[in-house]
Write a structure and sequence with these properties.
heterodimer, A: alpha/beta, Rossmann fold, Arc Repressor Mutant, subunit A, 2 domains, 5-stranded parallel sheet, 4-stranded antiparallel sheet, 8 helices, 20% strand, elongated, B: alpha+beta, Beta-Lactamase, Heat Shock Protein 90, 3 domains, 5-stranded antiparallel sheet, 5-stranded mixed sheet, rod-shaped
Chain lengths: 240, 476
């Protein structure tokens, strides 16, 4: 059953410590339960002030923060946190699907944004992308997974030493998959990061590009690198 | 009247109003002056005539009773002691017997005569108003009055009238200008406020002068109306947020529960299929809510303040690039005919979504093998964008209605969708002031959008604008 990619014991996911600041008990329980099932450590508070205290003192890999909270709302909590120098990645949750909300959240220092309701697979994919982001990584310009190599400066891609010709957007797509190698990236994440589309197109843009990329990268090799995770998204990794 | 050649300040409505009033006042002053002038002139002339008539009657009686010699003596005496009027007496041969008028008019009755201009003093020309009569035996008597004093009065009057008229013009022009400036400034205040409201600055209000005049009362009333509009807009967005909370939150929980249930019934394939179908249904409802909320937010116009100049050509190219492969996969050809370097003012994210929605629509509603062409060309100060296909098109009577919410053609019932895609396109077009229309592409559908071109010159003259698009920008 590969769709349960957050199942415990999966070596692909290191244990993350997540603080969930959410006043809706049901949503919070859903997130905490999902995270625990996936083997992660999740703390939950339902009040903004308590959330700020924990976020400042505790060492978390990432924060899941609701926009609207009693005590101290999410936007102000984040501003306070950032002005105190806490750089923990923050994933905003909101019930409002507004266009401006995302920009507001990101401007306040948020790292990602998710509109309620969401599929848990979307949340965990985004959290692992955030939680793994190394705080001060040197700028990486070459990537390698199995015998697939990418050089960002020369803009060259090779598989098994053989040069592969990619369209600009395919190159960008592969780069994003490589940066997140071993982690599931969802269709929505790809739309946002590769195409800068912050809406859901009815046309299968992502699927088409993935299948073209796959044809160029994987066809004729004995090992597929791009895998589809049913109901979640895609992952680039050496073993299936 | 054309003011095209005048500087901008003088072409304002206030100046035109001032000129109109000045001309009106000057016209009335001129009519009044003319009436007074005419009345004074006639009455002075009549007095002169009466004086001359009385003198002639007196002298005629003198002549009858005392004879010619006495008349000549009398005239000499009058010329010496009371030089009010001027006289002339001639015999039947025309010889001057007495008096100082320059000559005898040829016919008797009223006439005006003039002295011949003579050196050394050519300016000393004089004119007289004269009546001449026959006394007896060819002896003629003429009595006249110098016209100079009358003309002097007339000249003085005209001069005074001219000065008054000039003062009138200057006063009424400045007065009218100042008055109408004040008047129009208040009108301008109202215009500026209305424009700000249209731009989406709903908190903008007309400044009050605390004079409590008609204008202040009008402004106060308009401000109250704006308060009401703001309340309505806020309660609209409040309602939207309430819908978001009241319906999306429980729907979200429903979705969560279905996902949890899915994990627990992994052993039953039928159960899984049923739960998957339920999740899909829930997602469709959630999609519809999201689309409705999004349209409502765009229609509220709050994003108007964030419109910036952007490279529309690059934006269209980017959307085409995203869709080309997917269209090809569906057996449709996506062609681009985009002129480079065309700019317009807009919201990048919304315009991308608009173009994407139109392409989604074209791809979904055409059969395999269809051609879809997206074009952007410049025509004068307008940019014409169109998305045309050679699919089944839309019947003429439905073309206006496709932009309405939930409007779907009968034959599209089998194609999944919320029926909100084109409504969102219409909302984005409305926000940007883009002229949007659906036309017959014979065969097929053509959606046409007319943008106002953004002139790069405006960059230099207007301060707040910076070119917003950077095609190479990456979010990472």
């Amino acid at each position: 059953m590969p769709e349960l990619k957050f199942k415990g014991g999966n070596k692909l996911f290191d244990v993350m410590r997540i603080l969930v600041i959410e006043d809706d008990a049901e949503t919070a329980a859903y997130i905490v339960e999902g995270l625990s099932t996936g083997g992660h450590v999740a703390d939950h508070v339902s009040d903004g002030r308590d959330g700020l205290m924990l976020a400042t003192s505790g060492s978390y890999d990432a924060l899941v923060l609701d926009r609207m909270l009693p005590g101290l709302d999410g936007l102000n909590l984040l501003k306070t946190l950032r002005s105190a120098g806490v750089k923990t990645p923050v994933l905003f949750l909101t019930a409002r699907g507004g266009i401006d909300d995302r920009v507001e959240g990101l401007n306040a220092g948020g790292d990602d944004y998710l509109t309620k309701p969401f599929a848990f697979s979307e949340l965990i994919a985004r959290l692992s992308a955030l939680g793994r982001r190394p705080p001060l990584a040197p700028v990486q310009t070459t990537f390698r997974v199995a015998d697939l190599e990418m050089d960002l400066i020369a803009r060259k891609v090779k598989r098994g030493g053989k040069s592969i010709d990619l369209q600009p957007r395919e190159f960008r797509l592969l780069e994003y998959l490589l940066r997140n190698a071993g982690r599931v990236v969802t269709r929505t994440m790809l739309l946002e990061q590769v195409w800068e589309f912050h809406f859901d197109p009815k046309t299968k843009i992502v699927e088409t590009h993935i299948s073209r990329l796959r044809a160029k990268i994987d066809r004729g090799t004995d090992q597929d690198l791009i895998h589809t995770i049913r109901g979640s998204g895609y992952v680039l990794r050496a073993s299936s | 009247m054309s003011f095209g050649h005048l500087p901008r300040a003088l072409r304002t409505a206030s100046f035109r109003l001032a000129i109109f009033y000045a001309l009106l006042f000057a016209g009335s002053a001129l009519i009044l002056g003319s009436i007074v002038y005419w009345t004074v002139q006639t009455s002075l002339k009549r007095q002169m005539d009466e004086r001359i008539n009385a003198e002639i009657e007196l002298l005629r009686q003198e002549f009858r009773s005392e004879g010619l010699q006495e008349l000549i003596r009398e005239i000499g005496e009058r010329a010496a002691y009371f030089p009010v009027l001027d006289y002339l007496v001639v015999d039947d041969k025309g010889n001057r017997l007495a008096g100082n008028l320059p000559y005898m008019p040829s016919a008797s009755g009223w006439t005006d005569i003039e002295t011949e201009p003579r050196a050394p003093n050519p300016d000393a020309e004089r004119s007289f108003h004269v009546r001449s009569v026959y006394l007896a035996d060819g002896i003629r008597l003429a009595v006249g009055d110098d016209l100079e004093p009358l003309e002097a009065i007339e000249r003085a009057f005209l001069e005074a009238l001219g000065i008054a008229l000039l003062a009138f013009l200057v006063l009424s022009l400045t007065g009218g200008f100042v008055l109408s400036m004040g008047f129009l400034r208040q009108v301008d205040d109202i215009t500026h406020t209305a424009e700000a409201i249209i731009r989406g600055e709903l908190t903008s209000r007309i400044p009050l002068r605390e004079t409590n005049d008609n204008f202040d009362r009008l402004s106060r009333t308009l401000n109250r109306m704006l308060d009401r509009i703001q309340d309505l807009m806020e309660s609209l967005s409040q309602v939207s947020n309430d819908i978001a909370h009241a319906l999306r939150t429980p729907l979200g929980r429903l979705r969560h529960k279905l996902e949890t249930a899915r994990l627990q019934i992994r052993s039953s394939p039928q159960g899984l299929a049923a739960v998957d179908a339920a999740i899909e249904e829930t997602d469709t409802i959630l999609d519809t809510f999201s689309a409705l909320l999004r349209i409502a937010q765009i229609e509220a116009g709050t994003r108007k303040a964030g419109l910036k100049p952007l490279d529309l050509s690059a934006l269209f190219e980017r959307v085409i690039e995203a869709y080309a492969a997917a269209a090809e996969e569906e057996g449709k050809t996506l062609k681009a005919n985009v002129e480079t370097g065309l700019s317009a003012v807009g919201d990048r994210e919304l315009l991308v979504e608009m173009a994407a929605n139109l392409l989604d629509n074209a791809i979904r509603h055409t059969p395999a093998g269809a051609d879809i062409e997206l074009s952007l060309v410049r025509k004068g100060k307008k940019l014409i964008a169109s998305i045309a296909d050679n699919g089944p098109g839309i019947p003429a009577e439905d073309r206006e209605r496709v932009f309405r919410r939930f409007y779907r053609l009968e034959r599209s019932a089998s194609i999944p969708g919320t029926g909100l895609g084109l409504a969102l396109v219409a909302a984005v077009a409305e926000l940007h002031g883009i002229e949007l229309g659906a036309e017959d592409n014979a065969p097929g559908l053509r959606i046409r959008m007319i943008f106002d071109a953004f002139e790069p010159d405006e960059l230099r003259t207007s301060t707040g604008y910076v070119m917003a698009i950077n095609p190479g920008a990456r979010p990472l």
